[in-house]
Amino acid sequence: MTGRFITFEGGEGSGKSSQINLLKSKLMDRGIEIICTREPGGTPSAEILRELVTTGEVNKWEPMTEALLMFASRYEHTKNLITPSLKKGNWVICDRYYHSTYAYQGIGHGLGIEAMKMLKKITIGEIEPDLVFFLDIDPLEGIKRTQSRDTNEDRFENMDISFHEKLREAFLDFSKTNLENYIIIDASQEIDKISDIIFEEIKKRFKI
Length: 208
Ligand code: TMP
Hints:
Blueprint: E1 5-10, H1 16-29, E2 34-38, H2 44-54, H3 63-87, E3 91-95, H4 98-108, H5 113-123, E4 131-136, H6 139-146, H7 161-177, E5 182-186, H8 191-206
Parallel strand pairs: 1-3, 1-4, 2-3, 4-5
The structure holds thymidine-5'-phosphate.
């Protein structure tokens, strides 16, 4: 594979979408072919699963069902979009990937990281992002930011604040086992400042 695979992770309202858009235009300015995509979702079939998990009552799914739906969506997305794009040499920037399942379902819902690792192995196997940016924001601040959004995809936002606090700790912890490719960014900074930090990191790593 010659393309680069970059993922963005974060709690609710951490500003991932804005950063992905800014990064996309900076990379395009350098003539790099970019596919921007998201999880859950990213392909027509995976988007159907997205709607099932992101809308409706907080308790509508058992945690394990939710984890399976996340990996079902990821399997569709990886097989039909991410892997073929990387093979063609495109860069893929993905709004969330498996670290979100480790954090939300593994730690937030208490299913455990080991169980999530097994699901990963069965579904998407060894694929790993080249680089993960975790945009770190205080959960209360993040959820406040999401409140002005006009969307029915609010199922996770409506979960208890203690759930969101657990996620944040989990996302921070992941850097301990992935020192090389997992970058924590303070998402309370100005948007342009964050974008500069991200782009500097990418220029340094990928020599563009
Ligand atoms: P988004 O709001 O960042 O687009 O993500 C949709 C929601 O899905 C978000 O609240 C986090 C949640 N989610 C999980 O719980 N597990 C996952 O594996 C993924 C990809 C997202």
